[in-house]
Amino acid sequence: MIKQDIEILDEISPGTDWKNQDDLLEKHILDSLKIVQLVGALNDEFDISITPVDLVPENFKNAEAVSALVERLSDE
Amino acid sequence: MSYTSYSYLLIFLGTVFIFYTVVPKKFKWAVLLTASYVFYALNSGKLTVFLLLATAAVYFAGILLDCIAYTSALAKKGLEREEKKKLKTLINYQKKAVVVLTLGFIFGILLTIKYSGFFAGIFNRASEFAGLNFVLPEFKFLMPLGISYYTLQAAGYVIDIYRGKYRASHNFGKVALFLSFFPQITEGPIGRFDDLADPLYEGHGFSYDNLTKGLQLTAWGLFKKMVIADRVNLFVSEVFGNHGGYSGSILLAAGALYTLQIYAEFSGCMDIVTGSAQLFGVPLAKNFERPFFFFFLSENWRRWHITLGAWLRDYVFYPVSLSPTCIRTGKFARARLGEHFGSFLPTAFALLITWIGIGFWHGAGIKYLIYGLYYYALMMLGMLLEPLIARGFSALSLRREGRLLNALRILRTSALVIGGMMLFRADSVSVWLEMLKRLFVSFDAGGFAGTVLKCGMDRQDFFIVLLGASAMFIVSLLQEKGIKIRESVAKQRLAVRWAAYAGLIMAIVVFGAYGTGYDAVDFIYGQF
């Protein structure tokens, strides 16, 4: 799933080395506008529903965290 | 009681600190709560009842939400999947009802006190224009201190419990202290319960580190406020008060100095209150991150009044962006208008609501609405034009980086910020437009030197402001490079340390704008 996530992340912010970034928010690689774009794309791609409750730094700090969120919501 | 007054700094803060230090650990929170309500009552008198009402509303709403969640968890046991779904829908409905009613109540108070006169005025003018004989009373209420700040904190508390971020507190004192803590009640920062409640409530023993660092930060804030902001106010008040008599160049200088004033004042106040809170071991949220000399307006805003921006992001922008209507509109627009414009539309709508919120939060008036829309329009323009600009650079084989280009970006962003600040300070939108017009039609650069020293500040005032602002920018630059100033000072020898403290205090005493000939200037952000 992480490969698909990274493809989506690449569309949002091309040229980022997603696997080696551990502080996407602190480095402002993902800002609130990009997070909303990303959430829209993830919801469409995986048929999940990411809500404002899920929009906390822990879920977007790196690509693994985004993948874990998608997996958790896919299982629900 | 202003944060810069002797009565606050020496008497109030000193007394609270002594009591806090000497009482047993389990009563320390009670000292802070009592002090906060004394501070509030001294400033707002009978209007304290509004703070109590908001506190009681969110306290009981939080407990009710907890009870609903608890009973639903019990009821779920042994149910079939379909029945569980039905129960979940019912529970969500109940929880939503509690949140909507509570927010309606606390924002209802804010809207009535702060905005009812403004909206009644608009209604009356529309009614008159339409030839109707229907007039609403335009009430002007006294504003309880910090109502715009504590209402947002209170709303955040209830919404977070609703979202399941944390459980409600069953301790009324803890909620009351979170909403009333005296260093942050006047101008923020707008805190979150999960960050603040425990440090406020647990009680901390005497800490030399907290005491010295808290006092240093408080003194640094006083320096920014009294040496820079209050002195610059002499020029700003004169020029904005008599704008018709000044050329465009002087108006531009007043705009730039007002930008300096509001930054020195607001960030100075944040230093004073953060320093005050540190005396009690309570870390307040960061509200500024050196918001100057940046390439883009969005970066400037990200670093300015951070806690207000974060509040609106979490409780307005995200919910609106992820609402079913916005998502449906986005899909529809992407299918018909292409990926870029299709994704842009719902974001633009959510940002519009957010910026209207930012505008009106600052005050009830058309000027504040336009202030919010000014930044909104500029940012939307930037987002819309981005593909065109990228294509232009690519077609001309130009690099998008480079010193000259970056210098031009900084100049552009600074000009736009100053333009926005001029609107914020001007008496009305028409005054602002008139001032902007003069920037272009009667700039009179030649007459600048002959007039600039006759606008409330003499050569000595300018020199002091220049020194003060330079010190502020050098400190900011060092912080931007990751140097922790207070830690660095603490590592110096005793004599050097005390020389630095004495120098700072002397600078405030000698160069601070107070005494005969100076009016004490209220904190601008304390008026919201």
Low-confidence segments of chain A, given as residue ranges, are none
Average per-residue pLDDT of chain B, rounded, comes to 89
Shape category of chain A: globular
Report the count of strand segments of chain B.
0
Structurally, the number of domains of chain A stands at 1
Question: Helix/strand/pairing class of chain A, anyone?
Answer: mainly alpha
Instruction: Give the structural class of chain B.
Output: mainly alpha
Number of helices of chain B: 20
Main sheet record of chain B: none
Number of domains of chain B: 3
Enter the CATH topology name of chain A.
Non-ribosomal Peptide Synthetase Peptidyl Carrier Protein, Chain A
Architecture blueprint of SSEs:
The complex is a heterodimer of chains A (76) and B (528).
Chain A (H helix, E strand, L loop, with lengths): L1 H11 L19 H15 L16 H13 L1
Chain B lengths: L5 H17 L5 H17 L3 H29 L4 H49 L17 H16 L9 H9 L12 H10 L5 H34 L6 H31 L18 H6 L3 H16 L2 H14 L1 H24 L3 H30 L7 H23 L3 H13 L6 H4 L7 H22 L4 H6 L3 H18 L17
Helix pairs in contact in B: 1-2, 2-6, 3-4, 3-5, 3-6, 4-5, 6-7, 8-9, 8-18, 8-20, 9-15, 9-16, 11-13, 12-13, 13-14
Plain-language structure description:
- The complex is a heterodimer of chains A (76) and B (528).
- Chain A has 76 residues and is mostly helical.
- Helix content of chain A is 51%, strand content 0%.
- In chain A, helix 1 crosses helix 2.
- The longest helix of chain A is centred in the middle third of the chain and has 15 residues, at 32-46.
- The mean pLDDT of chain A is 83.
- Chain B folds into three domains: 6-206, no CATH class; 207-284 and 426-528, no CATH class; 306-412, no CATH class.
- The chains are: A mainly alpha (76), B mainly alpha (528).
- Chains A and B meet through helix 2 of A and helix 11, helix 12 and helix 13 of B.
